[in-house]
Design a protein that fits this description.
heterodimer; A: 342 residues; 2 domains; 69% helix; B: 310 residues; mainly alpha; 16 helices
Chain lengths: 342, 310
């Protein structure tokens, strides 16, 4: 899949169609993928294009070099998953070893442990943090006081702007033995719980912190989509005798469905790469049995223990899963509801 | 200070009831009250951790350890602030954060705006290719380790500011937002300037950029907040304490306090009191919280620009 995507992006493939400027970036992301245009007389027109636009092309030089060095060299660097890497040797490894490193982690029980942890944590996060912004947006939409609505929005967006270090710090303080959560626990007559040392609490705490940080900000796109729904639809529904719930169900939700699908596809694509930085900050060896995920495992064995090829193989495995999930979700969405990223 | 977060049009709820076709049912009135209360709760839950943080910052260590500090400070004192502000490393790291944010934002804006401008020209041959190679990196990339090898070993950027400010200099999302903005820039203006003898460079720097302040401000804020909050690249590539940004300073403080990784690794096992942590966290978020009411609407408009236009 990767190969075909890359090979279709040849220079001079297709002239942009009219009205393209109006297409949103989210859609234009993949717009250029599937049109392998013919390219006759390529060489001569290239010379003319450069003669005419050479100043514009100079604008491209630095970003292009940047992309090559910082995106495409590491991308090709993934090849060390199949080659033995020696410190100080070539960045692309020294000799081929085939699937040696893949076999190493596939037969490693610890890898499967973190694999399932990742799937569960990612799945829970998706399950909880995907629908909540929709609910919150619908609730905001029912508010009559515009002032109140704006205040709620302003407050609920705030956590989005916090560094992950701050979020982790807040979580650790709130769940500490002397923290607020334990005071609530004590008030209910139970014994305080050292939450961050209990593996059974890690998922709950992680997902809660994700909810706190992302749900408010997640409403923006839905609120925008809600303003584009035609009021006449509501009027027509009322004439037909639809109450508020039925209006919400039959008009509002279908109206924001394209937004929902796009965000769902993007979420599904990233769900195996669960918030690596946050997990890294929140976890400690006591909670590894539930709180260790592929990315943090990769960080420990790859960077801290300097097993570069082994770590790269795991990273590549994870990236390919992510890519496959996006393509799968996108295809499914296109077939079932007619909405897709590309 | 209340900001204008969304393009407003009459509230649907309002329109629906003002037509008078359906009078408010008692059930709906109950719903509206419950809804407002629920949203107030959302606000309370969102704000509580910050309130708690402030309370802890002004409380004495003993009261915090006894689990008595929730909404209001207990054992009010300013000593903790004195202790934290007396740490030279804190100031050094704070200055580093400032420096990295400024340098990183300048680099990122230079790369993003020039690339976006060139890509916004429909007649540019090879445009689809240049857009494509940027967009593709959103879906697939080098993993942690190939990046690490490139930057730490190959480029030799250990303990270098460049490791923090350069690799993230092109956000594809920001690029697409900017490209969409430039595509809608009135061509007549550029043509008129060209007829008056300005080259492409002149048009870009003297016509387009000055008239794109809104999108430039938004993108600058996107990058600046991202850099201000970032910690991982510094954590990964730096081991010289005097080069850390304040987020890494904070991370080390918290890690030492909760005895997580550093202790497991046999690192510094100094317990840092909760009030010291709280003050450091408060001082780290303070600039963002103070600026937040003013910058929030730029962010919202940036996200909207990036997604609703189509």
């Amino acid at each position: 899949m990767t190969q075909s995507v890359a090979s279709q992006r040849m220079p001079g493939s297709d002239p942009p169609s009219a009205g393209e400027a109006e297409v949103s970036p989210i859609r234009s992301m993949m717009r250029h993928r599937s049109r392998p245009g013919p390219r006759p007389r390529a060489r001569r027109t290239w010379r003319r294009a450069i003669a005419r636009d050479w100043r514009l092309y100079t604008f491209l030089v630095v970003p292009f070099v940047f992309l090559l060095v910082f995106k495409y060299i590491p991308m090709l660097g993934n090849v060390i998953a199949f080659r033995r890497f020696r410190p100080g040797g070539s960045i692309f490894g020294d000799e081929w070893v085939g699937f040696y490193y893949f076999q190493a982690f596939i037969t490693n029980q610890q890898f499967w442990n973190v694999f399932w942890n990742t799937a569960i944590l990612g799945g829970l996060t998706l399950l909880v943090t995907f629908p909540l912004p929709i609910v919150l947006a619908l609730m905001l939409n029912e508010l009559r006081s515009r002032r109140f609505k704006r205040i709620v929005q302003t407050i609920s967006y705030l956590p989005h702007f916090m560094s992950i270090v701050i979020v982790a710090g807040l979580v650790l303080q709130l769940t500490a033995l002397d923290g607020t959560v334990n005071q609530v626990v004590a008030a209910m007559g139970a014994d305080p719980v050292p939450f961050m040392q209990r593996p059974e609490w890690f998922r709950t705490i992680y997902v809660s912190s994700e909810v706190w940080q992302t749900v408010g900000w997640g409403t923006i796109l839905y609120l925008a989509a809600l303003t584009t729904i035609d009021d006449q639809l509501y009027e027509a529904a009322r004439v037909d005798g639809a109450g508020r719930w039925r209006q919400t169900w039959h008009i509002t939700l279908p109206g924001i469905r394209p937004t929902m699908m796009v965000l769902l596809i993007l979420n599904i694509g990233s769900f195996m790469s669960v918030g690596f930085e946050k997990v890294l900050l929140l976890q400690n060896p006591l909670v590894y049995s539930t709180g260790d995920v592929i990315a943090t495992y990769l960080y420990r064995v790859g960077i801290q223990s300097a097993q570069f090829s082994y770590g790269t193989a795991i990273g590549l495995f994870e990236a390919v899963i992510g890519l496959v999930l996006v393509l799968f979700a996108n295809g499914l969405s296109r077939r079932m509801v007619g909405t897709s990223l590309w | 200070m209340v900001t204008e977060p969304l393009p407003q049009k009459p509230d649907i709820a309002h329109v629906r009831s003002s037509t008078g076709v359906i009078r408010e049912s008692p059930g709906y009135r109950v719903f509206r009250v419950a809804n407002a209360i629920a949203l107030l709760l959302v606000c309370a839950v969102t704000l509580y951790p910050f309130v708690n943080l402030v309370a802890k910052s002004f409380s004495s260590e003993g009261h915090i350890a006894a689990g008595e500090v929730n909404l209001v400070p207990r054992g009010f004192n300013l000593d903790t602030f004195r202790v934290v502000l007396a740490d030279d490393l804190f100031w050094t790291n704070y200055a580093n954060t400032f420096l990295y944010t400024v340098v990183g934002t300048v680099i990122a804006m230079a790369i993003t705006s020039t690339y976006a401008y060139a890509l916004s020209k429909p007649h540019l041959k090879g445009r689809a290719f240049f857009v494509g190679i940027a967009v593709f990196t959103m879906f697939f990339g080098g993993g942690l380790i190939p990046n690490y090898i490139l930057i730490a070993s190959y480029l030799g950027w250990r303990n270098s500011i460049w490791a923090v400010v350069v690799p993230g200099a092109l956000s594809v999302f920001n690029l697409l937002v900017m490209k969409a903005f430039f595509e809608n820039f009135p061509t007549e203006l550029e043509e008129a300037a060209a007829i008056d003898g300005l080259s492409t460079y002149g048009v870009f720097f003297r016509i387009v950029l000055p008239l794109s302040k809104a999108v430039l401000a938004t993108m600058t804020l996107f990058y600046a907040v991202g850099l201000w909050n970032s910690w991982f690249s510094a954590f990964l590539y730096m081991d010289d304490k005097s080069l850390f940004p304040v987020t890494v300073y904070l991370r080390n403080l918290i890690a030492a306090a909760t005895g997580s990784q550093d202790i497991a690794e046999g690192g510094e096992a100094v317990q840092v009191a909760a009030n010291i942590q709280a003050v450091t966290m408060l001082l780290t978020v303070l600039p963002i919280i103070c600026l937040y009411p003013f910058i929030q609407r730029y962010f919202v408009s940036g996200v909207m620009l990036g997604s609703v236009k189509g």
